[in-house]
Amino acid sequence: MINLQGVSLQRGARELLLSADCRIFPGHKVGIIGANGCGKSTLFQLLLGQLESDAGQVDLPNTWRIAHMAQEVEASDQPALDYVLDGDRALRQLQKQLAAAESCSDTDGHELAELHERMASIDGYSGPARAAQLLSGLGFSHTEQQRPVHSFSGGWRIRLNLARALMCPADLMLLDEPTNHLDLDATLWLEQWLQRFPGTLLMISHDRDFLDAVVDGIVSFERQKLVFYSGNYSAFERARAERLAQQQLQYEKQRAERAHMEDFVRRFRAKASKAKQAQSRLKALDRMARIAPAHVDSPFQFTLPCAEKTSNPLVDLREADIGYTGKVVVHKVQLGIQPGRRIGLLGPNGAGKSSLIKTLAGQLPPLSGERQCGEHLAIGYFAQHQLEALDTAASPLLHLQRLSTDASEQSLRDFLGGYGFVGDRVFETVAGFSGGEKARLALAILAWQKPNLLLLDEPTNHLDLEMRHALTLALAEFSGAVVLVSHDRHLLANTADEFILVADGRAEPYSGDLEEYKQWLLGYNREKKRRGETTPDTAGDNTGPVGDKKTQRRTAAALREQWKPLAKKLKTLEHQLSSAEKQLSQTREKLADESLYSGGQHEEIARLNQVQTEQSERLAALELEWLETSEQLEALRGE
């Protein structure tokens, strides 16, 4: 058992923990959450014995083997596979002893047999195969597994550190933001691996869906204390929302936040135009309204302004071959981005999602075909390397002043405050910022330029849960178009109205939801592995065999035939809802006209009141029918 009693810890002038208590029992999987800088990584240093607490006691079993994920990798000529194998120290030590014994002519046969027996007892002979499987699951091809460590970029080196931690036989595993540099298929693979891990797991993560799937407890840093919540992250949100709801000082803010979100859900319900995604989006938005109280004390509150002028389409790809010199990654792309369109790009690792976004952004010209831009196109592009483009010698305030020389300092400071840069933080240089702070600044710079098309490639890397929540809300209300690549399923579900699947050299509409995509991806990668192709092995213990492709297509076609009547009805109801809302609005405008009450129009007033009552009842009935139809369609799709 891990037992913290009365632990206090101060780093510099900042008090991270004050008389904090926490118990974690063997075999539990616990998510560690809290704002950036609150002390999550420092807690791991305490458990690893790298730090001493200022007061209190930190106890854990002396016999426990601890695996942890390092955040830095030294460049070396060592092959990636060997680097990961080094994670199992007992195996590597035994390999050295065995090699020395076999090379020595004087070695006793009994000693050699004992070494081989010890190797078998720790399953050492399968070590290289296990290391290769870990690397494959995290996106490394067979060829890449033999490449030297120094040849990989920073993000891929972090993946190597993760694989090395997973390679270590452990009673306690400490993982610090393991999904930060993973794409969705590698995240799903890791999710399944950790679900099967038999030891105790402590994991710092800002991915709520990942936490939901893996952990059975949450430890939250709250006012220098460690507060334990049973259940996954969703259970934590509900429990914390209920607790905050009882605090009188937060009551008014909570009520206003809920009312705002519920109003947004209602407006979306009446105006949703994408029948295939409408029910999933409505459920996600409704959940956002329910969990809003859990985030009422978030330091981040901002909007994403949109350009006043727009074009239709904003950008249009026609028969575009996308890729690099000598290599086409995605063939014959037909994609027009209209104002208000909200697209999530799905697809396996390396299929071309980032290349497609770069082509839309104009940073990667199509190899053939056309890219046409609207007259008033204003792109806000957040790339995976966006943080590297920041001027490390400049402050957040100076970054914005360079963009708007006429803007007042106070207006810029007010704007930056929504992204967590308050007080003197706006004058500090970027060089001293954490990854999360740099990501927040990059988003602030993007928002300040008022784009009408947001192209976002993994925007949540380095962002904590509160900032991700604020970004999700801001994107939900952004009036421009959005194209998004993200491993954060919560962000995808709450932002995208439709999905495009990028796979096998094609970019085509995908009619399923994210849960269906998860199953598709598992089957896709399993089939790739069966054919010997270099795609990450994401298969889990409970996944079944891949069916014949013709059978799959026939099954999918049969399901679509069953969905069509309900989907058609849903679209009709959406048009009726829009019309009914417009009629009710017109009636209310007439009743609000002061000239109506100047005298002698009592019958007209009575008539309009009666019409308003009938229209309100019709609108309520249509909304109810829309919800019932959505639920029927969702249930059918889940069969």
From TrEMBL:
Transmembrane segments: none annotated. Keywords: ATP-binding, Coiled coil, Nucleotide-binding, Repeat. It comes from the Bacteria. Residues 528-552 are annotated as: Disordered. Gene3D superfamilies: P-loop containing nucleotide triphosphate hydrolases. The keyword Nucleus does not apply. Residues 2-248, 312-529 form the ABC transporter domain. Residues 570-639 form a coiled coil. SMART domains: AAA. Pfam families: ABC_tran, ABC_tran_Xtn. One of its GO terms (molecular function) is ATP binding. This is ATP-binding cassette domain-containing protein. It comes from Microbulbifer spongiae.
